[in-house]
Amino acid sequence: MIKISEPIITQEEKDAVMEVLNSGQIVQGPKVALLERQFSNYCGVKYSVAVNNGTSALHTALYALGIRSGDEVITTPFSFVATANAILMAGAKPVFVDIDKNTLNIDPSLIEAAINKKTKAIIAVDLYGQPADYTGINKVAKKYGLYVVEDAAQSIGASFKKHKTGSLTDIACFSLYATKNIMSGEGGMITTKLKRLSERSKLFRHHGQNEKLRYSYSDLGYNYRMTDIQAAIALVQMKRIDQINKKRKQNATKYNNAFKNIKGLEIPFISKDNDPVYHQYTLKVNKHFKMTRDQLKSYLMDKGIQSNIYYPIPLHKIKHLQSKQLSLKNTQEVSKQVLSIPVHPQLSEEDTDYIIKTILTI
Ligand SMILES: *Cc1c(COP(=O)(O)O)cnc(C)c1O
């Protein structure tokens, strides 16, 4: 079967893990510190803070910004559940604003209507590896004095107006989960240009404890540390970011050329400001296609091709996140149309040819 994602694990990752195990220093140590430096350089920011996953990165970022109980945080309803859960974890309330029908990211022109006195921040998501519209988002944030968090879990290496993700807002969060473009099994990174935010993040991941002053607790904190074992894997993976993202783009271009004139199939819309990294290659299957979206998914499965729906249930429809909302009609509509097909760098030329042939045959 052709899988929707497949982590790259070579001898180099294995050797890196063994080196850490043999060193005896396995928890947060020199590899984590090195990863933080390299990550900052890569994204073009001053500070990076490594944590144990992308969800805790979001929770930590909200803490660093001072978000707490009674606050409201605006976000997109079309994302992985962790984006909105992190807002609840901080004690705040998620307020969902509809997406742009083309980019599938939060629509900046609709944000203003959702702002009130309790609003403190906006979390934008770079869905499928395409940056959100940070010109529009940062503009409305500035007007109302709000912070902006970038959920860049899917967009490592992408850029918006030539600036890398991670450098576009006050603070950004990445995931190194096994299915992401680069991974460490589980892992997360926070990037920021502000020293104060990096220092607050470091306290939060370590029980509220100053890393240089043991048993001095300035606030409630968590144990969100990354191990040197994970950092060692991530350091190897970082060397390949540009190469693997290039392969994803090549696969996407090949699909675009094959699918651009098929009735009922819409290829991904990429804004002219963006250089995306195709964490997913997502088609929209509309009512003019020969099959429904769900039929296409099972048809592909029968032919040995795994595909997936990111995400079938908009976040405002999930019980613990439900709340009264402004119209979210684009999200409702699009969640019934999207289908992601394999685009990862482990696909061979024969694999992508076979996927194209299978869909064209319909
Ligand atoms: C993967 C992901 C997360 C959560 O990251 P984990 O490392 O799995 O905790 C958050 N937001 C988005 C958009 C994601 O894709």
Describe, in plain words, how this protein is organized in 3D.
This protein has helices at 11-23, 30-43, 54-64, 81-89, 134-144, 195-204, 228-238, 241-259, 293-302, 329-335, 349-361, and strands at residues 47-51, 72-75, 93-96, 119-125, 147-151, 159-160, 163-164, 171-175, 188-192, 265-266, 274-275, 281-285, 338-341. It is an alpha/beta fold and 362 residues long. A seven-stranded mixed sheet has the order 1-9-8-5-4-2-3, sandwiched between helices. A three-stranded antiparallel sheet has the order 7-6-11, with no helix packed on it. It has a three-stranded antiparallel sheet with strand order 10-12-13, with no helix packed on it. Helix 2 (30-43) runs parallel beside helix 7 and helix 3 crosses helix 6. The protein is globular and about 65 Å long. The structure holds pyridoxal-5'-phosphate (PLP).
Features of the shown structure:
single chain, 13 strands, 362 residues, 35% helix, seven-stranded mixed beta sheet
Percentage of β-strand residues: 5-15%
Q: What is the succession of H and E elements?
A: HHEHEHEEHEEEEEHHHEEEHHEH
Tally of DSSP helical segments: 11
Unique ligands:
pyridoxal-5'-phosphate
Low-confidence stretches: none
Number of strands: 13
Let me know the average pLDDT.
Answer: 97
Helix content: 25-40%
Task: Identify the strand order in the major beta sheet.
Answer: 1-9-8-5-4-2-3
Radius of gyration: 20 Å
Largest sheet: 7 strands, mixed
Question: End-to-end distance, in Å?
Answer: 19 Å
Output the structural class. Answer: alpha/beta
The backbone outline, from C-alpha atoms, is: globular
